[in-house]
């Protein structure tokens, strides 16, 4: 539930910030007549994202055992790729996001109403599709779909409240710090999803070693305990993982954390001209 909440909060806040920037730009530019086009693009993007999630769920439900395991593995690996790209992109572009969006909206206003709709649609659709894919991949190991659904709903609602408060300047938070901490947590979630994707490939007999366990701590981490369920649901940490699953978790986590936490290189000052 917490992992789903984190996904909804992080992705939802990005989408909310995008919408807030677009709306604020139109209001300050006295172009409120274009607001319906922006909201039309936003709602179309939300509808596409919900439809994409429904297609993923429907497809997985109508496959055989091997086909479903392979489908789950592919979606999990794709989710890891998307969330990793998103984390590093947001870390680099958070400070320039507002200016970039305003520039694109200015160009869209010159082209007409349809361009405004398309621009708003594309800005939100990317976050929505990532949310649907990441949410689908993160709940594959869940024993019930109710808690992940509640978690992502609460996360999205929280992001909307934060986005509205930021738009109204009622609160001021350091977005760079926020995206850094949520990025760290999402890297842990993505490592668990990657581990689960490898497990699905083993279940589908694509990779060997399903019964070759790295360790067994079932006694210390019972799967039916609240803390065992919490670790399994949030980070996909299981008491009896295979060797290949454990290697996948470590191989993804350590380099990703290193590059994410590595300080950005300062830009070199231009050499003085004699």
From TrEMBL:
It is found in: Membrane. GO terms for cellular component: high-affinity iron permease complex. Pfam families: FTR1. One of its GO terms (molecular function) is ferrous iron transmembrane transporter activity. It is a multi-pass membrane protein. InterPro entries: FTR1/Fip1/EfeU. Keywords: Membrane, Transmembrane, Transmembrane helix. The chain crosses the membrane at residues 6-27, 39-64, 70-88, 108-125, 145-166, 178-198, 243-261. It comes from the Bacteria. Belongs to the oxidase-dependent Fe transporter (OFeT) (TC 9.A.10.1) family. This is Iron transporter. It comes from Herbidospora galbida.
């Amino acid at each position: 539930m917490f992992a789903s909440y984190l996904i909804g909060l992080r992705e939802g806040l990005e989408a909310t910030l995008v919408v807030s920037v677009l709306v604020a730009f139109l209001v300050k530019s006295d172009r409120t007549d274009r607001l319906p086009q922006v909201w039309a693009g936003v709602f179309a993007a939300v509808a596409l994202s919900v439809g994409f999630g429904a297609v993923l769920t429907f497809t997985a439900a109508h496959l055989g055992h091997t086909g479903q395991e392979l489908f789950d593995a592919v979606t999990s690996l794709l989710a890891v790729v998307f969330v990793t790209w998103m984390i590093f992109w947001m870390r680099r572009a958070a400070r320039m996001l507002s200016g970039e969006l305003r520039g694109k909206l200015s160009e869209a206003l010159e082209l007409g109403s349809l361009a405004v709709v398309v621009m708003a649609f594309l800005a939100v659709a990317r976050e929505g599709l990532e949310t649907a894919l990441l949410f689908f991949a993160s709940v594959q190991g869940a024993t019930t779909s109710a808690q992940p659904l509640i978690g992502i709903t609460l996360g999205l609602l929280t992001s909307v409240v934060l986005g509205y408060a930021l738009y109204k300047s009622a609160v001021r938070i350091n977005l760079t710090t926020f995206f850094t901490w949520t990025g760290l947590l999402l890297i842990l979630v993505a490592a668990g999803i990657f581990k689960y994707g490898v497990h699905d490939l083993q279940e589908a007999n694509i990779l060997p070693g399903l019964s070759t366990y790295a360790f067994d701590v079932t006694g210390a981490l019972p799967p039916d305990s609240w803390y065992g369920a919490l670790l399994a649901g949030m980070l996909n940490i299981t008491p009896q993982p295979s060797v290949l699953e454990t290697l996948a978790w470590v191989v993804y986590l350590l380099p990703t954390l290193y590059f994410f936490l590595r300080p950005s290189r300062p830009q070199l000052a231009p050499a003085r001209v004699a």
